[in-house]
Amino acid sequence: MTSPAPIHVIGGGLAGSEAAWQIASAGVPVILHEMRGVPGVKTDAHHTDGLAELVCSNSFRSDDWEYNAVGLLHAEMRRLDSLIMACGDANQVPAGGALAVDREGFSQAVTARLEAHPLVTIVREEIAGLPPAANESNGWDSVIVATGPLTSPALADAVLQLTGEESLSFFDAIAPIVHADSIDFDIAWRQSRYDKEGPGGDKAAYVNCPMTKDQYEAFIDALLAGPKTEFKEWENVPYFDGCLPIEVMAERGRETLRHGPMKPVGLTNPRDPTVKPHAIVQLRQDNALGTLFNMVGFQTKLKYGAQTDIFRMIPGLENAQFARLGGLHRNTFLNSPKLLDGQLRLKADPRLRFAGQVTGVEGYVESAAMGLLTGRLAAAERLGKPLDPPPPETALGALVAHITGGHLEGAKFQPMNINYGLLPPLEAPRQDAEGKRIPPKDRGRAKKRLMSLRALDALERWRAG
Ligand SMILES: Cc1cc2nc3c(=O)[nH]c(=O)nc-3n(C[C@H](O)[C@H](O)[C@H](O)COP(=O)(O)OP(=O)(O)OC[C@H]3O[C@@H](n4cnc5c(N)ncnc54)[C@H](O)[C@@H]3O)c2cc1C
């Protein structure tokens, strides 16, 4: 039997290494192109030539599959023979409930496993533009682009040419995202400014959180005093006027926010219609499922711990659970909901699949997870047995569904971590398996466990075909 033509993977980071492993494991040859290792060529964040280098923290975050969405993603990836998880597990260092790894040992293990695989060829070179034209045997008809948040400029420019101005971002400006079921609707209410109807006919698209003068002043004090993350020298993220960090707006004057994202006009608090709030924080639906809301205009460089403390000062958000916190980073990522199909192929040139952070997922584990999926999808296609992605009840399927379609149309697409809000909602259980009443305070946690069990069950059914 003749061997199938190879698949090319560009970028040997978290996503590309995992994709290459999955392709080779399916019996398909793979050529992995990584530019680090060429003298003088590297990104601003990488320091070594090792594959799957962790550029910052050494943590894969929580390893708790029952109650944490990233822990669930770990569990799903382990069941699908993930190289990144196997090397992470083999190189773990003590970190409580988190999975943290010895970064050098981890990267060396990934590199060694790939180098030793007979179907993997590693080429140290930059692909400095669109991949070459395909012929019958060179394999360039199936390419996975996994070049990460710091994709080399030559390749990023070529993708930009192919997809158009609005399609590739070089920075993210992320406002915090809150789980809808953690908002206190005894305080917050739904209404659009001036009851203006949206294109879908909705006059109550926003969630509004009112503030008195004292609450506003205390909030501004906290914003000004809160610890901020510094930019690295090379990051040099420009502040665009439309998306200034909220604390920078506050620094420009104590009233700036009241005339900007927190302006209290065109809104009436139904519980106190005659009193005009001094300021109002608005949240807008962020995903098609309606389980997540983003804080409008609240992009921030505040440190994560400070964000939760300060944003829980907002009336209605005292018990907010954050699906993700805000940030501003250098980050090359596609407008995936517009550009990619459900197989993570570029609609404008379907021989190109994208994987990793460049697709608009965020984090080591999420990036590797997208590598795992694209590797499997590309290998299945090469073998003439196309595969559907896992169902959205799984963490893997939920991530793909979000970046390729679950993000709300019209809203600006911003990178996303895995979280339970991306999975189809479930009613919080009132009783446990033995029929014992679950107290209301424990129901959210019980719901997460049910969602995790549902996910692993759905994954097994998908795996069984
Ligand atoms: C400074 C920084 C800090 C971060 N810190 C964290 C953190 O602490 N925790 C976390 O979970 N996530 C973090 N992230 C986010 C993200 O999860 C990681 O960047 C992750 O490595 C993304 O995986 P990836 O495979 O998509 O990209 P990468 O791991 O960056 O891999 C991309 C690879 O492609 C190569 N490459 C680029 N262009 C080309 C080309 N044209 N030809 C050939 N090769 C090319 C690069 O050299 C690189 O090896 C951070 C990101 C940045 C930028």
From TrEMBL:
Localization terms from the record: Cytoplasm
Record keyword Disulfide bond present: no
Record-linked SUPFAM superfamilies: FAD/NAD(P)-binding domain
Keyword Methyltransferase: yes
Domain MnmG N-terminal residue range list: 7-385
Residues holding FAD: 11-16
Cofactor: FAD
Keywords attached to this entry: Cytoplasm, FAD, Flavoprotein, Methyltransferase, NAD, NADP, Transferase, tRNA processing
Main enzyme class: transferase
Reactions catalysed, as given in the entry: uridine(54) in tRNA + (6R)-5,10-methylene-5,6,7,8-tetrahydrofolate + NADH + H(+) = 5-methyluridine(54) in tRNA + (6S)-5,6,7,8-tetrahydrofolate + NAD(+); uridine(54) in tRNA + (6R)-5,10-methylene-5,6,7,8-tetrahydrofolate + NADPH + H(+) = 5-methyluridine(54) in tRNA + (6S)-5,6,7,8-tetrahydrofolate + NADP(+)
Chief localisation class: cytoplasm
Signal peptide feature range: none
EC identifiers of the protein: 2.1.1.74
PANTHER family with a match to the protein in the record: GLUCOSE INHIBITED DIVISION PROTEIN A, METHYLENETETRAHYDROFOLATE--TRNA-(URACIL-5-)-METHYLTRANSFERASE TRMFO
Its job: Catalyzes the folate-dependent formation of 5-methyl-uridine at position 54 (M-5-U54) in all tRNAs.
Assigned protein family: Belongs to the MnmG family. TrmFO subfamily.
Record-given protein name: Methylenetetrahydrofolate--tRNA-(uracil-5-)-methyltransferase TrmFO
Organism, as annotated: Peiella sedimenti
